[in-house]
Amino acid sequence: MATGNYYVPSSNFKLDGGGNSGDFVASIVCSSFNDHGHVNIHYDGSIASPITFPPSIIQSPTSQIVEVGSDATFNVNASDPSVNYQWYFFATTDTGYWPYTNLLYDVTNEIPGATNSSLDITNVQSTNVGYFGVVVSNLDGFARSWPANLTVYSDATPVLSGALNPTNGQFQLNISGVTGLNYILQASTNLVDWVPLWTNTSPFSFAETNMPAYPQRFYRSAFIP
After folding, report:
1. Helices and strands in the chain: count of H runs, count of E runs
2. Residue 57, C-beta contacts closer than 8 angstroms, at least 6 positions apart
3. CB 186 within 8 Å of CB 194
4. How many Å apart are CA 79 and CA 57, to the nearest integer?
5. How far is residue 191 from each of residues 38, 53, 194, measured CA to CA in Å?
6. Measured distance CA(76)–CA(136) in Å, rounded
7. Among 40, 111, 142, 208, which residue's Cβ finds the most Cβ atoms within 10 Å?
8. CB contact at 8 A, 29 and 52
């Protein structure tokens, strides 16, 4: 007689049989069970009702920065693909926005019809700025995602600032644009040929430490989509 314990709640368990006879005592937790009609089963307890579990969030929606008028899509990945979905929106003006207060089932924060694993927002406007979260649920419970932040911008033009009078042959340039977007800083001595100096997310700074090497030098920055 052989014994064993199998805990594979998300897997299928199959017994093919067709060999020598023998006894096997086991405790099995699985998603589905198939004996292929080749084995005789005696069990203590019940296998008529499947064992289910509350869902969990495998991957929460990701924060996004989009231009006004464009589209945004949020996705969630749950442990059970057959769960129910309900998306919620919390404006940045909400006091104690998701998930730090008990706004979980406040219907005023529900997005009507947003009951899929993904949420599409078309023609994004400033009124869409805020936090988006989703509740996944089944008969055994629920789980809520971490909120994703939607930032909307209308102008990605960078602004350069820094010392107008370099000292000791060096000064610092500050580059600011839409927070979180990528910008490149370039330099030129003739306003024709531009050399990349630094790429970073706004805001950031660049230290020029070798001004005496250039009779004159110009700087510019640009947004990188």
Report:
1. 0, 17
2. 76, 77, 78, 79, 136, 143, 144, 145, 146
3. yes
4. 6
5. 82, 65, 7
6. 9
7. 208
8. no
Return d(Cα 217, Cα 160) in angstroms, integer.
14
Tokens of 142: 């629920």
Exposed (0-12), middle (13-18) or buried (19+): which is 225, by Cβ within 10 Å? exposed
Q: Is 126 helix (H, G, I), strand (E, B) or coil?
A: helix
Residues 6+ apart with CB under 8 A from 140: 52, 53, 54, 55
Task: In whole angstroms, give the CA distance from residue 102 to residue 99.
Answer: 7
Cβ–Cβ < 8 Å for 96, 141: no
Domains and CATH numbers, the chain: 1-51 (no CATH), 57-153 (2.60.40.10), 159-224 (2.60.40)
One digit per residue, the tens of pLDDT, for the chain of length 225 reads 556 566 666 666 666 655 566 666 666 666 666 666 566 666 555 554 555 688 999 999 999 999 999 999 999 999 887 899 999 998 766 544 444 444 445 677 889 999 999 999 999 999 999 889 999 999 888 888 888 999 999 999 999 998 667 777 788 899 999 999 999 999 999 999 999 999 999 999 998 888 788 888 899 999 998
